[in-house]
Amino acid sequence: MSDHQVSPIDPATPHAARIWNYWMGGQDNYPADREAGDAVAEVYPDIVTMAVQSRRFLVRVVRHLAGEAGIRQFLDIGTGLPTMQNTHEVAQGIAPDSRVVYVDNDPLVLAHAEALLRAVTPEGVTTYVHADYHDPEFIVAEAARTLDLSRPVAVMFMGVLGYEPDHAVQRSIVATVMAAMPAGSRLVLWDGTDTGEAVVEGGEKLVESGGVPYILRSPQQLGECFAGMELAEPGMVPITRWRPSEQEARDAVHIDAYGAVGRKL
Q: Are 55 and 159 in contact (CB under 8 A)?
């Protein structure tokens, strides 16, 4: 754990991690979170699908990285509340010696982290850093306590960068973290996109309900975070289209969320 100050939990104000937990069918949320979540889902029902599909995307990506790509270190920034098939569970299930560092600034996540985010193998290591992604240098320094930054690391920003309103700042955050990683490291990034009217209206409802504004960007803008990297096939695509199983491919529907995996050269 880091020594960053932990703010108190405010159950009366909708909070992103708890709203997402609600959409995923979790129990770690309050009435204010459920009200905000319902307001968004009323105008954009696919948000619930997005929440579920984002976890399936994470599982497919981590399986690929821990498997054929041979990655043994993961830095999951903005992890959110623990649910099922978390990064460390998937990675260590394939490569028992995987090391995983989670990063989040939500006090509720902090309260759950020590109890739930534990290594699932004797060889594996799982730790949690309480930090905001607007402090990427601190995150890198804390991660280096657990990870060997001379060896490839998979850096993950999974549906979190929209909380930064300035696209240039968003790119800078990603670039700063990736600059500290060696060649062969991966960037995994997905986010909601402004590719449909309903999702944009859903974002407006979130703000009206008291939630923190979430900026939807274009797939092209998300792709700018991978400048200078080699994208794994199939590139920047809707997350339901990133290497789905045969069954997932048959069942896939378009959602306004795009993602990709890039290799640092």
A: no
Q: Where does 16-264 sit in CATH, by number?
A: 3.40.50.150
**Residue 113: HSE in the Cβ half-sphere, 13 Å Cα cutoff:** 21
Q: Report the SS3 class of residue 76.
A: strand
Q: Where are the domains of the chain?
A: 16-264
pTM exceeds 0.90: yes
DSSP-based helix, strand, coil % in the chain, nearest 5: 45, 15, 40
What pLDDT is attached to residue 7? 58
Pairing type for strands 257-264 and 229-231 reads antiparallel
Q: Are 14 and 209 in contact (CB under 8 A)?
A: yes
Residue at 77: amino acid letter: I
Q: What pLDDT, in 10s, does the model give residues 114-138?
A: 777 788 999 999 999 999 999 999 9
